């Protein structure tokens, strides 16, 4: 069996074994009912919406939601949401259940939009070889268009003979056939990160894929290698492929130059091509690729943290336990400086919550601010952030500086892309460190929140605040409808952007948005100082929000 076939088969086997192992392990299955689990689902669902992409969804008998894209599913056509380094975490995780969802123990499902990297280069340039390494290090699913087509021939499909003839001639199979195979494979996979190898091979492939799926690649890898070296490699590959003979090889080179290079040029023009010198050794090539994939892991770790916090907020102990390595260590505020090992201690938080009243009253809301992800290697990473926690039942706000150490374990039951929590440190903060901030924005930013019921909806706006809010209406066509809230931003976050906290500017916490979500793109980088009356404005670059901060003496 050829190297590539082995790859695909490995991916299929892995998927199958996940299905079979999960079907026999009911304890790790997301509870079909239970308000905690439902709260996580609902919350994560709404996060997906907030991210701008709406998936069709259905609830199966077990309460698990099924994504509806791919074969028979609907590919969302909204723009991709990039990872934000802003003040608030980019909470766009979409908890999706895969088709066999009720038996799969994953609580956090792929983001609403698959993240795709196309892998292109001449025949024999090492695409399949490098994809195997990327899969190992970064947890992508590798889909080789050529392998899918060869599998289609073997399956005895009605298209088989046509595909076989085209491959023998080194020609490119019609897009409709290849795209259908890709869509099906993506829909059957339980991930949202795909390496699509050997596709798009021509302009028709590219345009049709975009049209049908609405997906633009994050970037493309282009393995650059001269024909002499390609020919040497292909003739030495020895995998029994019908097209690895000198006659077909030459035809494939011609097709690559005439049809595939223009596609690479297209991505070059839009800044998405990453050219790799493929003449180097396998290891050197991988070293050149490696840094390009690290941001995917950073996003995954940030999402894992956000989904974990949703589980904690909803009091869902079973979700929490599935996220944690059984030997997890922690420094928790209530442990008075002691190192806590194992999960027993953590149950205290969940019990405390239940003892305190009914679930609806106790439902908490965590807001992640200033997240920083540091990768220690391709499997281990630290997520640090300041977490603001508000109980739904009161306006009390608590704040913690938290660090979570995650490790991706191949053997782990899928929780969030196989990440397990190894260590956490939570340090309670004095809320005196927080600066009260009033935010104004124009209505319509978030369709899921009724902002008027939160925060200080009736604050009297000053003229300049209204003007600042109006400025941001350029971004949305909806009429300005200014509202205002009070929330808290860590004082240290405001430093370095021209804000000087002083004694009298430290506000007493009185209220906080139950959801910071709408602010996640905020970047406190553009400071307007209209200092005369001690009002400071700053605007985000990327979202229709305007923030004003006021000193206490104006409240
Ligand atoms: N950097 C490298 N140096 C030398 N040989 C390599 C290198 N990378 C891959 N090879 C070898 O070259 C051959 C072709 O590699 P591979 O199958 O990964 O290419 P490919 O781009 O996927 O080809 P195709 O498009 O035909 O499927 C294989 O035998 C592989 O072991
Ligand atoms: N998008 C694609 C990808 C592949 N094919 C056909 C034609 C190729 O010569 C053959 C082998 O592909 P490889 O394994 O070298 O990537 O499969 C196609 O028609 N369209």
From TrEMBL:
<keyword id="KW-0808">Transferase</keyword>
<dbReference type="GO" id="GO:0006207">
    <property type="term" value="P:'de novo' pyrimidine nucleobase biosynthetic process"/>
</dbReference>
<dbReference type="GO" id="GO:0005516">
    <property type="term" value="F:calmodulin binding"/>
</dbReference>
<feature type="binding site">
    <location>
        <begin position="124"/>
        <end position="129"/>
    </location>
    <ligand>
        <name>ATP</name>
    </ligand>
</feature>
<keyword id="KW-0547">Nucleotide-binding</keyword>
<dbReference type="InterPro" id="IPR000850">
    <property type="entry name" value="Adenylat/UMP-CMP_kin"/>
</dbReference>
<feature type="domain" description="Calcium/calmodulin-dependent protein kinase II association-domain">
    <location>
        <begin position="299"/>
        <end position="411"/>
    </location>
</feature>
<keyword id="KW-0665">Pyrimidine biosynthesis</keyword>
<keyword id="KW-0539">Nucleus</keyword>
<dbReference type="Pfam" id="PF08332">
    <property type="entry name" value="CaMKII_AD"/>
</dbReference>
<dbReference type="InterPro" id="IPR032710">
    <property type="entry name" value="NTF2-like_dom_sf"/>
</dbReference>
<dbReference type="InterPro" id="IPR027417">
    <property type="entry name" value="P-loop_NTPase"/>
</dbReference>
<feature type="binding site">
    <location>
        <begin position="198"/>
        <end position="201"/>
    </location>
    <ligand>
        <name>a ribonucleoside 5'-phosphate</name>
    </ligand>
</feature>
<feature type="region of interest" description="Disordered">
    <location>
        <begin position="16"/>
        <end position="37"/>
    </location>
</feature>
<comment type="function">
    <text>Catalyzes the phosphorylation of pyrimidine nucleoside monophosphates at the expense of ATP. Plays an important role in de novo pyrimidine nucleotide biosynthesis. Has preference for UMP and CMP as phosphate acceptors.</text>
</comment>
<comment type="similarity">
    <text>Belongs to the adenylate kinase family. UMP-CMP kinase subfamily.</text>
</comment>
<keyword id="KW-0418">Kinase</keyword>
<feature type="binding site">
    <location>
        <position position="280"/>
    </location>
    <ligand>
        <name>ATP</name>
    </ligand>
</feature>
<feature type="binding site">
    <location>
        <position position="205"/>
    </location>
    <ligand>
        <name>CMP</name>
    </ligand>
</feature>
<dbReference type="GO" id="GO:0036431">
    <property type="term" value="F:dCMP kinase activity"/>
</dbReference>
<feature type="binding site">
    <location>
        <position position="150"/>
    </location>
    <ligand>
        <name>a ribonucleoside 5'-phosphate</name>
    </ligand>
</feature>
<dbReference type="GO" id="GO:0005634">
    <property type="term" value="C:nucleus"/>
</dbReference>
<feature type="binding site">
    <location>
        <begin position="171"/>
        <end position="173"/>
    </location>
    <ligand>
        <name>a ribonucleoside 5'-phosphate</name>
    </ligand>
</feature>
<dbReference type="GO" id="GO:0036430">
    <property type="term" value="F:CMP kinase activity"/>
</dbReference>
<dbReference type="GO" id="GO:0004683">
    <property type="term" value="F:calcium/calmodulin-dependent protein kinase activity"/>
</dbReference>
<dbReference type="GO" id="GO:0005737">
    <property type="term" value="C:cytoplasm"/>
</dbReference>
<dbReference type="InterPro" id="IPR006266">
    <property type="entry name" value="UMP_CMP_kinase"/>
</dbReference>
<protein>
    <recommendedName>
        <fullName>UMP-CMP kinase</fullName>
        <ecNumber>2.7.4.14</ecNumber>
    </recommendedName>
</protein>
<dbReference type="InterPro" id="IPR033690">
    <property type="entry name" value="Adenylat_kinase_CS"/>
</dbReference>
<keyword id="KW-0963">Cytoplasm</keyword>
<dbReference type="GO" id="GO:0006221">
    <property type="term" value="P:pyrimidine nucleotide biosynthetic process"/>
</dbReference>
<dbReference type="InterPro" id="IPR013543">
    <property type="entry name" value="Ca/CaM-dep_prot_kinase-assoc"/>
</dbReference>
<keyword id="KW-0067">ATP-binding</keyword>
<feature type="binding site">
    <location>
        <position position="252"/>
    </location>
    <ligand>
        <name>a ribonucleoside 5'-phosphate</name>
    </ligand>
</feature>
<dbReference type="Pfam" id="PF00406">
    <property type="entry name" value="ADK"/>
</dbReference>
<feature type="binding site">
    <location>
        <position position="241"/>
    </location>
    <ligand>
        <name>a ribonucleoside 5'-phosphate</name>
    </ligand>
</feature>
<comment type="subunit">
    <text>Monomer.</text>
</comment>
<feature type="binding site">
    <location>
        <position position="237"/>
    </location>
    <ligand>
        <name>ATP</name>
    </ligand>
</feature>
<dbReference type="GO" id="GO:0005524">
    <property type="term" value="F:ATP binding"/>
</dbReference>
<dbReference type="GO" id="GO:0033862">
    <property type="term" value="F:UMP kinase activity"/>
</dbReference>
